[in-house]
Amino acid sequence: MFLKKTPGPRTAILPDGSVLTLADLPDPQVRWVASRKAAVVDAVHYGLLSRQEAIRRYGLTEEEFDGWAAAVRRHGRNALKVTQLQKFRQPIVE
């Protein structure tokens, strides 16, 4: 078996004990759902991808990725679900 040499780590161990690999990351052309967004945020948080690499690879804006990361940090993975936007949205301060 031949393993392609890649820069950086190939796996990351998540707090629940599961292993996240580059192969587990979503294809850039698929529809975004909460679990795929969470996988990308976890990959960056645990050092599997750099923030800039994730933004480039998935065609995201910095604000979009930062919004996902902030939502997970504040409210957990459920905050990435479209049906939960109203529940977790920050109040507008005037």
Helical/strand content category: mainly alpha
Number of helices: 4
Overall shape: it is globular
- What integer is the average pLDDT? 85
CATH superfamily of one domain: Winged helix-like DNA-binding domain superfamily/Winged helix DNA-binding domain
Characterize the main sheet: 2 strands, antiparallel
Rg from alpha-carbon coordinates = 15 Å
Give the % helix. 40-55%
Short description:
This protein has 94 residues and is mostly helical.
How is the topology of this model organized?
Layout: E1 11-13, E2 19-21, H1 34-45, H2 51-58, H3 62-75, H4 85-88
Antiparallel strand pairs: 1-2
Give your account of this protein's structure.
It is a single chain. The protein is mostly helical and 94 residues long. It has a domain at 31-94: Arc Repressor Mutant, subunit A. Helices cover 40% and strands 6% of the residues. The chain has four helices and two strands. It has helices at 34-45, 51-58, 62-75, 85-88, and strands at residues 11-13, 19-21. Strands 1-2 form a two-stranded antiparallel ribbon. Strand 1 and strand 2 form a beta hairpin.
Task: Name the descriptors.
single chain; 94 residues; mainly alpha; Arc Repressor Mutant, subunit A; two-stranded antiparallel sheet; 4 helices; 2 strands; 6% strand; WH-like_DNA-bd_sf
